[in-house]
Amino acid sequence: MGKLFMLSYGEIALKGSNKRYFENILIKTVKNKIPNCKIEKLSGKLLLDINNGQSDQEISAGLHRIFGISRIARVYETETDIEAIKEKTIEILSNVKFNSFKVVTKRPNKSFQYNSPWINRILGEHILKHYSDKKVDVHNPELIVNVEVRGNTYIYTRYEKAAGGLPYGTSGKAVSMLSGGIDSPVASWLMMKRGVEIIPVHFYSFPFTSERSKQKVLDLTKVLSSYSYNGIKLYIVFFTDIQKAIYDNCPDNYIITIMRRMMFRIALQIAKRENALGLVTGENLGQVASQTMQNMAVTNTLADIPVYRPLIGMDKQDIIDYSEKIGTYDISIRPYDDCCTVFVPKHPIIKPNYERTLEIEKKFDVQRLIEESLSKTEIVYI
């Protein structure tokens, strides 16, 4: 037997007739992420028997990158016999520092002769017998001894909150517009957490943006890919000619509005190609000129599928906190321009007129530019 970890489902446990579908995807993901891992399904939980030479910390780090898990506990197994449970508990506590404790028992195995309150009492007395300097504190204990009585009994003294959400890929596919800044990777991650398989699209404007800006997006996608079980397909769209056409034909204050609409058109084409059911953006209401309600409304007129904006009501600091948590912040702040930071006018319009926008777009061949851009698109599997 290797190291045992118990994973709690959280939200999956609330599912009905399709619960098995979510469980199977979760199990598939765990097997992909954690090598040499045997998995046993318990009621509302998974028991992992891991024998791959990794430390507890390495195993835990891998499990934290799996959506659908709400809690992770390193557990210790013994037979379901009260004397064996008492002995195992003392063995576990010999490596733990504490002054106060309480025992919390769950007994899915109703055939066991002692109920949960009795087990709590028996183990509490046994611990005090071995540690006379300790005390029971049922309200604010330093240590909680968790006991789960099943076919065998599992004991643990700590657990970690995991990523939560739904298993990756269980909610369908969406195209995610990935700029390389702080916001869009967080938006992508939040949709992944809800079970969405993302297909990132990056708009690349070489030579106005450098190879280093492209590498930045590849590195961000690599971080996001570490939360998937089957890798991520990244589209890198050649956007230079479109930006030149916009710059040459558009009034200065409408450049950003027209550029966003062209990005949407291309992303929608890719979504259709990939059978994706939505677009994901990192837009945050009022953060910059292109993210006013009026600008988003003008852009949204193009969409025939839902546009998901998971950051729309967040404060910037909340977004930064997320980016630090998921590991994208240090990459996002690398000082390389992306297509959204070149050709930026001094005074972009914040309340564009829809009819005026359509008039401006008639000045250049929108469809030809899109087709040429897509023909030069690079696809990278990460």
In words, what does this structure look like?
The protein is of the alpha/beta class and 382 residues long. The protein folds into two domains: 159 residues, 2-Layer Sandwich (VC0802-like); 209 residues, HUPs (Rossmann fold), CATH 3.40.50.620. It is 38% helix and 20% strand. Strands 1, 2, 3, 4, 5, 6, 7, 8 and 9 form a nine-stranded mixed sheet that branches. It has a six-stranded mixed sheet with strand order 14-13-10-11-12-15, with helices on both faces. It is elongated, with a radius of gyration of 26 Å.
Strand and helix layout:
Blueprint: E1 3-8, H1 19-33, E2 37-42, E3 45-50, H2 56-63, E4 71-78, H3 82-93, E5 100-106, H4 116-130, E6 135-136, E7 143-149, E8 153-156, E9 160-161, E10 173-177, H5 183-193, E11 197-204, H6 211-225, E12 233-238, H7 240-249, H8 255-273, E13 279-280, H9 293-300, E14 307-308, H10 316-326, H11 329-332, H12 354-361, H13 366-375, E15 378-381
Parallel strand pairs: 5-6, 5-7, 10-11, 10-13, 11-12, 13-14
Antiparallel strand pairs: 1-3, 1-4, 2-3, 4-8, 4-9, 7-8, 12-15
Helix pairs in contact: 3-4, 5-10, 7-8, 8-9
Q: Regarding CATH, which class of the largest domain?
A: Alpha Beta
Q: Which value, in Å, is the CA radius of gyration?
A: 26 Å
Cα end-to-end separation: 34 Å
Sketch the major β-sheet: 9 strands, mixed
Mean pLDDT: 94
The tally of helices reads 13
The total count of strands amounts to 15
The CATH homologous superfamily of the largest domain is termed: HUPs
Helix proportion: 25-40%
CATH architecture of the largest domain: 3-Layer(aba) Sandwich
Number of self-contained structural domains: 2
Low-confidence runs of at least 5 consecutive residues: none
Range of strand content: 15-25%
Structural class: alpha/beta
Order of helices and strands: EHEEHEHEHEEEEEHEHEHHEHEHHHHE
